[in-house]
Backbone:
């Protein structure tokens, strides 16, 4: 059953109410677009401190990550990690201890789809997979896991609903588009390709060996090189579009942004 935005926000608020410390996960490639002011404001109203975690740092140069950290730490404690490769995860543990209002501390992980919340939860849990008694009033299987003597992890990610945006590429960046469910993935893929080329002109050369800069030509060549064909040998452009979107989500096709680039273009994009 599809969860409505209002129900999703009720669930987010519920896990925020039952935690001591919030870990908001954003994508290091697009920190601003994958932060969520509403969840930050909600946490502040509830008196819950936040650590901003920029995940997928293996896809961004170190100097760019440090620029983002200096900027974002004016607002929130910020740490960059790669949950997939266990980079920076010790720093995250240090930050949790540093900013916990008390010990032992209960931690919840929140963020948009596809930013790596579940991987971070699994890292925090480690091998300690036995759940404690459910938090009073909890239902539908939420569990509190004792990860360490001083750390409890709420084993339910808070999935932030994606707000309305006009830019199809941003819907993909924010995790609002599931390529497997798209009836027509071509238009969103074209918009994503345009965005990727804007910030990384060599992205498709690096990933597919394709030098073209025109989105439809890129999709045609992706289909041809991957053997994505319809009956009669016609190129399956829809399958190629889904492949491009999946490659972005999985970090195989990427770009990154610097803080100064965002400041220059943010007004124009919105």
Residues:
């Amino acid at each position: 059953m599809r969860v409505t935005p209002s129900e999703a926000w009720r669930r987010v608020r519920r896990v925020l109410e039952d935690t001591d410390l919030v870990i908001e996960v954003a994508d290091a490639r697009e920190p601003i677009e994958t932060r969520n002011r509403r969840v930050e404001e909600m946490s502040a109203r509830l008196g819950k401190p936040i650590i901003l975690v920029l995940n997928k740092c293996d896809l961004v140069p170190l100097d760019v990550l440090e620029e983002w950290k200096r900027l974002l730490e004016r607002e929130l404690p910020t740490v960059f990690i790669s949950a997939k490769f266990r980079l920076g995860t010790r720093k995250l543990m240090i930050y949790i201890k540093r900013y916990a209002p008390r010990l032992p501390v209960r931690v919840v992980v929140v963020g948009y789809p596809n930013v790596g919340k579940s991987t971070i939860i699994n890292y925090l849990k480690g091998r300690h997979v036995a759940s404690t008694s459910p938090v009073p009033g909890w239902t539908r299987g939420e569990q509190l896991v004792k990860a360490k003597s001083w750390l409890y992890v709420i084993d339910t990610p808070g999935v932030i609903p994606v707000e309305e945006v006009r830019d199809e590429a941003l819907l993909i960046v924010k995790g609002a588009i599931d390529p497997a469910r798209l009836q027509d993935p071509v238009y969103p893929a074209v918009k994503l390709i345009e965005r990727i080329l804007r910030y990384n002109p060599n992205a498709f050369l690096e990933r597919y060996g394709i030098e073209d800069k025109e989105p439809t030509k890129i999709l045609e060549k992706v289909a041809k090189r991957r053997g994505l064909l319809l009956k009669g040998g016609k190129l399956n452009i829809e399958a190629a579009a889904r492949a491009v979107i999946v490659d972005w989500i999985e970090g195989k096709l990427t770009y990154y942004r610097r803080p100064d680039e965002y400041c220059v273009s943010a007004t124009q994009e919105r």
Observations:
- The domain at 5-159 is CATH 3.40.50.300 (Rossmann fold).
